[in-house]
Amino acid sequence: MECTAEEICESDFKIKYYIDWDDIDSLENWVEKLDLMCVPEWDIYRISWVYYLGEIVGCLCMARIPDLFGRKIPLAVTTAIQFPVLIAIILTDSLTFMTVLAFFLGILHIGIYNGCYIDICEYTHTKWKNHVCTVLLVFDMVTVIIIGFYWRYISKNWLGLLIFAASLNGLSIAGMFLIPESPEYLYSFYRFNELREVIARIAKWNKADSNLEDLTQSQIMIMSQESKTKDLTQFYRFDTELDLKQIKFSKDVAVRQDSYVDSIKKGEEYRKSVEIQRSVKAGIQEFFKNPEWVRNLILNMALWALVVMNYQINDYYECFFPGDQFEFLMAISVVELIGYVVGGFVFESFKVKPATNLYMISFTICLVGSLGILLNDEEENPWLDLVFTFISKFGVAMAFQGVYLANVLFPIVFSSTTFGVCCMMGSTSAFVSVF
């Protein structure tokens, strides 16, 4: 005979039960592993709650680190630490310990996701950053589709997914040895010798000629005519590197008056860069001296909170779907994936204020879908409810594209910090939505 979890847990007698593994919705997940059948719902929700809390703590503690110490080392450290955490998740049978692991996983997730996104963008030319963001978000959704496909057609057991995740983490640790420091980061902090080595390494990896003859059209570099046939790492000279030589000009020896003025400006920029790198306090002070940066940060934080809250509400909404829950997960993930791609094209199509226009279009679409869900009678028009749900999800996905790309509004020396602060607002929205 059939029985429910409530009947099993509320009975005064120990009821022996068996799970119907032939049921399409049955999963061999943490309910069995952690013995959650009769655990209060709050203890189960606490795993998600603590994970998002870990993300918030991660944003507060780790977002500034890559701006101070470089992109590679913090990313490598968090990736390496995550591996034993995943192994512990696979092995533990304790709900309390799993909750603690979820907290640390949230912290590490911010370090890895922040590092990967910033790193990828800084390896890419400005005109391609939009496409890189689109590809990153598309792969994010492909992962969700793979999870849905795994549950529906491959296995009901959670263990395979965790082993797959741990294996990818192990490969990522090995891959970190192949990735050099971010060229844009080194350039922004005037570490030109390291930058020359990184560019030569990238050129070698891409099987490109590192001779200066091929790079004379570069927008960020200039070189003397006599060095064109020399080795890149020895003779490469950057525009800012040459400009810094003017810092020692005095008013008397300067060829032109504007040369002396330029040298003062360059000297001030160099001083600020050094202070920002050496001191967290100095960096924060320099950031808040610029009202445009502060305004953009506040606006971007608000948009992150709004987008993530809409995303979470859409995820928790249960609408009609002709298939099972795994097929619905794959279907709505495909809709979201298409939203990312379309959002990228929309952003690219506007030459003036592309992020603003993308926000207006995406939020309008999301509003149409949300109002449709509220006004439609689900029982009378279930298919229409599904359409409005897909429309809302599509709009939210397009908005996500915008909040990611908006980070280009900030200078490289603050890009990890600003992205981390905005992620904190998103994690806070997700944290609140659990309740």
Defining traits:
2 domains; 435 residues; Growth Hormone, Chain: A; mainly alpha; 70% helix
Task: Describe the model.
By secondary structure, this protein is mainly alpha-helical. The protein has two domains: 5-179 and 288-430, Growth Hormone, Chain: A; 187-281, no CATH class. The protein is built from 19 helices and no strands. It is globular, with a radius of gyration of 26 Å.
Blueprint of the fold:
Blueprint: H1 5-10, H2 30-33, H3 41-62, H4 65-69, H5 72-91, H6 95-122, H7 129-154, H8 159-176, H9 183-188, H10 192-205, H11 232-235, H12 239-244, H13 257-278, H14 280-288, H15 291-316, H16 325-349, H17 354-375, H18 382-405, H19 415-433
Helix pairs in contact: 3-6, 3-19, 5-6, 5-8, 6-7, 6-19, 7-16, 13-14, 15-18, 15-19, 16-17, 16-18, 17-18
What would a concise description of this structure say?
By secondary structure, the chain is mostly helical. Helix content is 70%, strand content 0%.
| Beta-strand residue fraction | under 5%
> Percent helix among the residues?
over 70%
Q: Kindly report how far apart the N and C termini lie.
A: 35 Å
CATH architecture of the largest domain: Up-down Bundle
CATH class of the largest domain: Mainly Alpha
